[in-house]
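DegT/DnrJ/EryC1/StrS family aminotransferase structure dump, as promised
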Amino acid sequence: MTAFDIALYRPQIGQAEIEAVTDVLRSGWLSAGPVTEEFEGKYAAALGVESAVAVSSGTAALHLAVLALGLGPGDEVVLPSLNFVSAAATVALCGATPVFADVKGPHDLCIDPDDAARRITSRTRAIVAMHYGGYAADLTALSRLARAHGLALIEDCAHAPVTDSVHGVLGTVGDIGCYSFFATKNLAMGEGGMVVARDPAVGERIRRLRSHALTVSAQQRDRGGSSLYDVDTLGLNYRPTEIGCAIGCVQLEALPAAQARRRDAVRMYRERLASLPGLIVPFADRPVEDSAHHLFAVVLPEGTDREALQDRMRAARIQTGVHYPPTHLFTAYRERQEGGPCRLPVTEDVMVRQLSLPLHPGIGAAEVRQVVEAVSAAWQETP
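structure tokens r here:
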């Protein structure tokens, strides 16, 4: 349900998803079980890895990554402020300190490896690389940096499910890859996520932590295994549901075609917006094939009244968004930083000018044209 004629996101749910959910309901098994195992196997195969662990959300995926690496009080994790707050929150909730790094610039909204390097100290244990909008961060430089300092590299792939890049399949290049299947994501389960790990021992630790660290799972007990189990470490309930994973199986199969439709829309946006003076389309120098295109972000010229422009777009019944308010400026994180919030001049400049335009597999040429026309009209009227 939306008040907009052209929404920022529109999940693609069809008869196949409905039938898959119905099959789960008829099975009588609702929590993580055989459908979850099927989804994990298919997702791992799509990534080209041995195994994957399905979880309840992208936030759960990031939290389990931090827990599996044993991060805690006294440790620091370097990560971009330009991201959803969950990445920093999972670090802070483990007692470690989020250390925010700047992005490269308005043409590349991913973490700047040079700025990340400047923020490494003797307490740094990990770097988080967020693939903004589905575009790969500079994993070559970040991997080199992580190796040089003995750090773990976590890939935040919330925007990039099953996405190839010049560095390899995103999520499989670093030590741990974390995916989100929230309702607005390219692969949408409502809630859900996935974790993959380069080290099988880390992957197994994540799998156990996902379900209270029980030595015998509920599914194993249902199959006739021992009713007794041990708990040898502290765990959580981050299991997904069979309903969500059933949707995930269908969405995964449909993902290549959905990604192709996103690419078509991005091509049209890039071509039609090129005539607006001063407007920057981040990552426009990259081939459209090298991204999941979760977002279509633009950066407005300096001095543009973004709120007024959004009001005019809203009046045209077109939804826009901002991705994201910088995490380091939120109250909870300002209060954690000694001497006040850190300065991230590039992030702070870009994020008063960033705007996200509608992008989803269902958007067609007519809607893209309507969005661009509305942007152009609002452009002329906005100071």
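The chain has two domains: 15-251, 256-381.
lmk if u need the other ones
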